[in-house]
């Protein structure tokens, strides 16, 4: 089997999404890049999670051409391709319609950073894009979804902010590996749930203090990180 590594990584990632309670029906997908080979693997479109196999993952190149696979790739493939092209430091992208994060996206609201769970993953609020224009929606919709994300990320480091809410739509997350992107997708749903509850308990609540944000984010990420075990 060609591209075995990314096929297996993407297969595992896609199965993890419903197992983690992030996916209903088939509303979600994951992709993983092999940058040396110039391709990425992505879930096939509209196939039941029970019927997925590593072999059924579709291999696509960075021009959007199918390199290997008999099934059509996910309809969100152009969004994944747009993000994988622009964010060279990432290796995988995940998209879900997880309920609470999607509620923030539909409301057009970023998720404020209220605590250390959030600060362990994001160096500030979880950003939300602007609404898409009628032209963007009727044109290359999925590619333009990637472009509104890139517009929102002008001046933001995608590893400091490993995810976004697309306005009226839902979250996209990413990471150095697709497994990391899955972990962030789980964290985003959890963070959205906690933020929503915190806002109910204290409607005037302000964002986490700078020193606590710095402490939690920087001990896990960046040059001075000391949390967990060093990466290889
Ligand atoms: Zn979607």
From TrEMBL:
Which InterPro entries is this protein grouped with? Aldolase_class_II_sugar_metab, Aldolase_II/adducin_N, Aldolase_II/adducin_N_sf
The record's SMART domains line, in alphabetical order, gives: Aldolase_II
Q: Which cofactor does it need?
A: Zn(2+)
Q: Which GO terms describe its molecular function?
A: aldehyde-lyase activity; L-ribulose-phosphate 4-epimerase activity; metal ion binding
What catalytic activity is recorded? L-ribulose 5-phosphate = D-xylulose 5-phosphate
Which positions, given as ranges, span the membrane? none
Fetch the Pfam families from UniProt. Aldolase_II
Q: What's the Enzyme Commission number for this chain?
A: 5.1.3.4
Q: Name one GO biological process term.
A: pentose catabolic process
Q: Which residues form the Class II aldolase/adducin N-terminal domain?
A: 8-196
Per the record, GO CC terms?
Answer: cytosol
| Keywords in alphabetical order | Carbohydrate metabolism, Isomerase, Metal-binding, Zinc
What the entry lists under PANTHER family is as follows:
FUCULOSE PHOSPHATE ALDOLASE (PTHR22789), L-RIBULOSE-5-PHOSPHATE 4-EPIMERASE SGBE (PTHR22789:SF8)
Assigned protein family: Belongs to the aldolase class II family. AraD/FucA subfamily.
Name by which UniProt lists this protein: L-ribulose-5-phosphate 4-epimerase
Q: Which organism is it from?
A: Martelella mediterranea
């Amino acid at each position: 089997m060609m591209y075995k590594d990314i096929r297996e990584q993407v297969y595992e990632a896609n199965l993890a999404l419903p197992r983690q309670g992030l996916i209903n029906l088939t509303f979600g997908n994951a992709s993983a890049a092999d940058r040396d080979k110039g391709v990425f693997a992505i879930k096939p479109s509209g196939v039941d999670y029970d019927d997925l196999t590593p072999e059924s993952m579709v291999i696509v190149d960075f021009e959007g051409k199918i390199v290997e696979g008999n099934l059509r790739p996910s309809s969100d493939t152009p969004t994944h391709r747009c993000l994988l092209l622009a964010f060279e430091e990432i290796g995988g992208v995940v998209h879900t319609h997880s309920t609470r994060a999607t509620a923030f996206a539909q409301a057009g609201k970023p998720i404020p950073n209220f605590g250390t769970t959030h600060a362990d993953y994001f160096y500030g609020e979880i950003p939300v894009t602007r609404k898409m224009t009628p032209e963007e929606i009727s044109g290359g919709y999925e590619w333009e979804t990637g472009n509104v994300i890139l517009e929102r990320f002008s001046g933001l480091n995608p590893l400091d902010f490993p995810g976004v809410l697309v306005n009226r739509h839902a979250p996209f997350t990413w990471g150095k590996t697709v497994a990391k992107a899955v972990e962030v997708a789980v964290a985003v749903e959890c963070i959205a749930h906690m933020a929503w509850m915190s806002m109910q308990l204290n409607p005037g609540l302000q964002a986490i203090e700078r020193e606590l944000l710095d402490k939690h984010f920087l001990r896990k990420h960046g040059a001075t990180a000391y949390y967990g075990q060093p990466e290889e």
